[in-house]
Amino acid sequence: MQTESGLSHCPQCDHELPADPRYVTWCDQCDWNVDPEHHQVAAWQQRQQQALYRDWERGAVTRPGSWAARAAAYSVAVPVLLVPFACLFGGVALLLFYRPLWFSGLLAVIALVIGAAFRPRPQQLPPDAQPVSPADAPHLYAVLDDIGRITRTKLTGVYLHTGPTIGYARITWRFRPVLAIGTSYWAALAPQEQVAVIAHELSLARSSRLALTIEAARHVLTGLIASFQPGPLDEARHDEAQRVLPSHAGGVISAQDDAIVNYYLTKLANLVFGPAARLYLAVFQRITLRPTQYAVYAADRQAAQLAGTEATVHALEKALLADTGFRALERALRYNRDEDPTTAARRAVTEVPARELDRRIRLTRRCGTPDVPPTYLRLQLLQQSSTQPQVMLTADLDKELRPATQAALSALRQEL
Ligand SMILES: [Zn+2]
User: Fold this and answer.
1) Residue 360 CA, ligand 1 centroid: distance in Å
2) What pLDDT score was predicted for residue 280?
3) What is the pTM assigned to this prediction?
4) What angle do CA 200, 34, 19 make, to 5 degrees?
5) Residue 254 C-alpha from the chain's centroid
6) Per-chain mean pLDDT for the chain
7) How many helices, marked H, and strands, marked E, lie in the chain?
8) How far is CA 189 from the centre of its chain?
9) Do residues 153 and 173 make contact, with C-beta atoms less than 8 angstroms apart?
10) What is the structure's pLDDT at 244?
């Protein structure tokens, strides 16, 4: 309930709440309205996340994952990646060897479409990404070399884009290892926090092969599940089949027969493959959660050792606000020609009040991706020890990146 003083009371526990119209009103005592969008996270996933966290907390694990955990993850991911190839070969074989052709053609089309839709693809950089050469940014490359020596990671290039993420990526079919820096997150980071993010990403790179395999397999699995889910298209097919049913007489194979066969084939596929794919995904998630989450905890620890605990914690907190930074950058590009878009992004992130940041951290209990442990647990683990930085940044990296930043901004401006 709102009062004139800008305060309101929690409807759940009657605690007094400060109300700021720019942010969500929520209660820090009972978590009322922490999550206005009501995200759902599976109970098993929460339980497993906490179990994995406790492994790290009590020092039972120190590395990204055992040989057995990684082998198990590969053994569930690789077969999924073979599905598109099996579909392509199956489709061709059906066309060549199975008759009648109208029936094998129909099945082959389904197989070929699935195969083509889920074919493997290399990672893509955002369309506004600009290359940054060692001549453009000698200090940045020197920091990357320093950290790369410690984390045993070698990069072949750096790209700068306007997005809200900073990440290690393997691009093109030669899987070139590069660092892709999103300026709307980067701009909000203090120099030492930039070191923390670089250290984290280069440390994660060591387990990137497994992470990429798992990500690609999950893409195929969730895509298959979505296509086996009964949807509006199936209803349309059903209606089509019903509509043409009365004219189905005379014994000649016609377009109407196709519609009916199509409908029942899809229904059969939904019934047979849908539950199987969902069951497989459930098993897949449980097996792949451990090595991917361990790798993130290990990378957090490495980042804290190199950049210091304080900078690592702040960089992680700002990652939760990076979307806010990106929206501010986009707004400045669209409507405010006087304000530098990266300054707008930095301000939007650094001006977020501590109370809103606290809400965003609590929100990570309820939403997130399976590969990454929730931020509240990562922060909890980092804050248990205080490490002094090994790598100190003295140069202004932003200055070196300015030409690439301007080029990326004008590319985004043209897109908008
Ligand atoms: Zn309350």
Assistant:
1) 17
2) 92
3) 0.84
4) 115
5) 46
6) 87
7) 15, 6
8) 20
9) no
10) 53
How far is 174 from 170, CA to CA, in rounded Å? Answer: 8
Identify residues whose C-beta is under 5 A from ligand 1, the ion: 10, 12-13, 15, 27, 29-30, 32
DSSP letter at 167? E
More confident residue, 259 or 268: 268
Residue 142 has pLDDT above 90, yes or no: yes
Model confidence at 155: pLDDT above 90: yes
DSSP result, 347-392 = HHHHTS-HHHHHHHHHHTTT---TTS--HHHHHHHHTTS----SS-
Q: Which structure tokens are listed for 172?
A: 């093109």
Ramachandran area for residue 10 (φ above 0: left; ψ -120 to 50: alpha; else beta) = beta
Number of other CB atoms surrounding residue 290 within 10 Å: 21
Q: Identify the weakest region by mean pLDDT among 234-238, 351-355, 358-362.
A: 234-238
Q: How far is the CA of 368 from the centre of ligand 1 (A)?
A: 24
What's the gap in Å between 11 CA and the centre of ligand 1? 7
* Centre of ligand 1 from the C-alpha of residue 49, in Å: 26
Percent of the chain at pLDDT > 90 equals 53
Q: What is the C-alpha separation between 324 and 115, in angstroms, rounded?
A: 38
Separation of alpha carbons 178 and 175, rounded Å: 9
Per DSSP, helices labelled H in 118-254 are: 138-151, 183-186, 191-204, 208-228, 232-244
Q: 33 CA distance to ligand 1 centroid (A)?
A: 9
| Of 231, 414, 199, nearest in space to 299 by CA | 199
The whole-number pLDDT of residue 252 equals: 45
* Domain extent listing, the chain: 1-33, 43-416
